[in-house]
Amino acid sequence: MAPKPNHQRVAYVLPLPDAPGGHRLGVNGLAVDADHSILYSAGRDGVVCSWDFNRPLSSKTPPSFLGSKQPGQTTFRNQIQAHSHWINDIVLTQNNSALVSASSDTTVRLWRPHSESTDVPARIGKHADYVKTLATPGNHANWVASGGLDHKLYLWDLNGGGEVLNIDASGDDRTAKGSVYALGAVSSVLASGGPESVVRVWDPKSGKLITKFVGHTDNIRDILVNRDGDTIMTASSDQTIKIWSLTAGRCMHTLTMHNDSVWSLYSNHPQLSVFYSSDRSGLVAKTDTRNSPDIEQGICVAALQENEGVVKVAAAGDYIWTATPKSSINRWHDIDTTAEIEPPSSDDRESAASPPPANGAQRRKIPYNSVLLLSSTSTFPEANVPPGRPSIESVVEDELELTLPIQTLPEETIEGQNGLIKHLMLNDRKRTLTQDSAGEVVLWDLLKCAPVKSFGKRHMDDVEAEINTTESIAHWCTIDIRTGRLSVILEPNRCFDAEAYADEIDLPDRSELRDDQRINLGKWILRWLFAPLVDAEINRDQDYRAETVMKGEEVARQNSANLSPLDIPSGDVPRSLNIPIPHNGASPTAPRAGSDVFGSPTTPGFSIGFANTPGTLASSMGGGSNSNNLGTSPGQSFGEFADSMASPTPQQTLDATRSSMSDRSSDYFTSRMQTAETEKGSQGDQTPTALPHSPVEPDKEDKKKGSSLFSKKFRMGKLGRTPSEVKPQQQIQEEKEKPEESERSSVKEEKVFENNLSGFIERIRHGYDEFLAANPGQDLTSAITPIPDNETPVLNIPPRTAVFIQEESGDTAVASDLYRGSVGRLSEEIDQLEKSIPLWLAELLLKDQMPHKEPVKVAFTLRPLDDLLPPVVKPDGPPLNGPSNHNNSRLNANRMLRAKKVLSYIAERIDPTFTEEPAEDALKPEEYLELYCQNMLIPPNMTLATIRNHIWRTSGDMILYYKSNGKKDLPMPGSGGDEDKSQAGSHLRAEPAPANGGENGSAPTGSIHSLTASGSGSTSIINS
Fold this sequence. Notes:
5-stranded antiparallel sheet, 19 helices, alpha+beta, disordered C terminus, 6-stranded mixed sheet, single chain
């Protein structure tokens, strides 16, 4: 199976309201810097936090450390959004000056918590799948080990040197369970474990397998290695802890004090003689074997009980910290395992659940019910029984009691925040509901990047029923809340699918908007997410053009004395680089009022056509091509504009459709039936590249004369997006006659540009240089044409909105971050952005070009209700030079076409008084005609997609019925007016296609209807 090709996408994260520091989701990692009394935590929100304990945790802490702060009260220090996915593990290294984190975003990062930098932690390593665990051989080591779901072990250089060693964690045993969930390391030994239940021991210098231990029966969750590297301790989901000896090569002890999956181990003892273990039930046990001749004779105490499973446990000084799936961290008092065990018969025995004395004046005894046996063969630890007392086993010989943990309430809880855990996209695709871990439901605007309203702690489904609208908009983005924040992901193949009518959007200024104008949602948000970048690039382009012109003039002056004048006809050399850019005096990106740079006022892709049968569909795929009325500046033709941007090949018409959809002139009603006259025209023209001449396109001879060196060189090739081009026969003949010229031309065009914003800008500047080299002293007009403001009204994006450029590839499980920043800092990171932004986004922002994609159409049938009005289409009409079609009453149109446009289509065919430009006091079609579906009256502004998804709601073509509401007299079926109207329509539908016809063409002068040939069949056009 071929790997997925790489592609880049954009993601942005809506900023949460300001809140005190802390995690939003569960905590997965803990690390303690005892020297500085700092606790580090990391969790599923991708955040690393640091906390000041404000109390000495070691003898090295100076007495003045406490200052004026309240002793023992943990305070927030700082935090950083280190990853864009869950953090699964953290370790402190390099004398506690560096903290390394492993994440499900497949990266390993290093953070210097004591530095003043606020930058994202540096990436020191990367896996192909989730990174689950880390291990460091010591506090002064220069490498850290990581393991993940890609079955790999890596050693990474902490100083940024990259990969030190790469180990296949499965060794010679190829297995699907080779993921690495646990690591333990010292300088001489590296141990790994995972779902395979096998402990493998590696040489960290050579990467060779030393040995492997088999004995566990479930996933290995944690590993500890003693300082000498000869003892390994493993915790498993099989409820056991095993101790392995490298010297003996076998398992020495199996500890069974837990009754649930053991998730975490912690020890700061060099020989692991004192260690802590936690399990899925929330129990944390402390084991001490220092004064025991055998490990199984040591003492094990149920130190505390959490309400949920303990993912991570850590200890320092007199305290224990526990991390659970909640966003808070609990601090508990440590247990003195050298204390005396209180017999169960003692009357003055303290309650097992009571906390230790606060003043520490009286030494706490260990309750008998809190002692755990390390294994089934272990005996009660007599070392903690005072001399002279009877054996505790003899006292409780016949007594069976449940184990009670010493503590059930923590001394302190480091509170976290509430992260998002649930979301629901509304039908308008512009808003979404979220619910956080506290149950609060909030409505968000995905375009304004801000919360709209809070509904308190309610059921999300109840809120949805109150505020959701009845409309159908295409999915254009993906919502992700895996880090507790609201992230919006934009994929290039779908982010331009959704459009909304401007009159249905809350906009402060509608003066520059057209009637029934649609706004592309993906294009809209991308335009303003990267607005600082666009402004910066326009300024850079202006400076570069000025500098280039000055250098060219200087070179010309230096060479003028040595060069004799040449007589060059003025008509062969263009006097300026004429590339239009919309502008006004206020802003370089604003459109000029009144100009036609934004194309025809008609709504693009709005066509209803006859949906023919499969038998006639094949014939509709022939001949004809579309031409686009792209925006041009006054006095400039489309041909000149296109010639400045691409080579004059037959493919330029198809490439032109990749420009803004709002810039395309189009029609309302499209038919897929190929008429005989159109077929005859296609057969008569055997040249495959015979393109129709657009009224705004000059002849090819004029193109050749006016084309500059820049126009030949400035070509934005689309890799893999367009079919192979077919050269005209005349062009092929010319190439055969001039092979040397062709070879020279191909050599000149060998320059390759990167498929990112940097390469895009380099290509533009290369075109500037080539043009001025051939035309010194000429003017340079900017080749940047940003998106006009009337297509994307201003959005005030919050500066704290995070922006990501990510890349997905076939060899990684999740998308990797190419760029991370915020809207407020984009203008400071232009150089980094130029290397990260993909070509498709560069073309959108600086050329107003979107990837071409055919609009989705809906098939339906129009019928008069109760036959009270004439039919729109005569189903049994005479054939037009071909076989009759008895199904030509089936129509199709863009899914975003409104019902009132369908009524206009009906009125045009049944109302003799209908005109395209009615009087001001004339009734509009939606005022005297009504449309019904499933016996429901359709509102005039409802789209076909909404009708199908919310009213029709069945398979097959929709059936729409129309009737008059009596406000205007209309001809009845069989009347003379109706017959004349029908015959006129039949005649017009039989007209041959105009030369510039197509789905996006314009109707010929003096005619409402025309039949054109395009890639999808015949088209019946009505200008809006």
